[in-house]
Automatic annotation (TrEMBL):
The gene is FAM241B. Its main location: membrane. Belongs to the FAM241 family. This is Family with sequence similarity 241 member B. It is a single-pass membrane protein. Residues 6-49 are annotated as: Disordered. It comes from Podarcis muralis (Wall lizard). GO terms for cellular component: membrane. Residues 53-110 form the DUF4605 domain. Pfam families: DUF4605.
Amino acid sequence: MVRILANGDIVQDDDPRVRQSTQNRGTSSRPVRRRPFCGASPQDAARPGERSLLSDINQQLVNMGFLTWNLGNQVVEPVMSILLLLLLMMVGVRGLLLVGLIYVVSHLSQR
């Protein structure tokens, strides 16, 4: 097998540079700070002092006058409303219904 080094070189597994890079990675004392991704659970994203890009955009849209609305027991944020409108323009009503069906099926399969 081959490995790809940080500088982009493709080398064999037994190359000394591969062993050196794996040893350096294990001795790194730099703390790793990870931000939650879009699919993170609300508990992961609710760390004090951390804000996501979507929450910042939502806050700016609310400040500009966009409203949040409820769809059943789900709160639809302004950025999701804009994304739904863009999706509607790109794929039409049938595509939007297909996306809604996929969401419902995936939501029910998680239970």
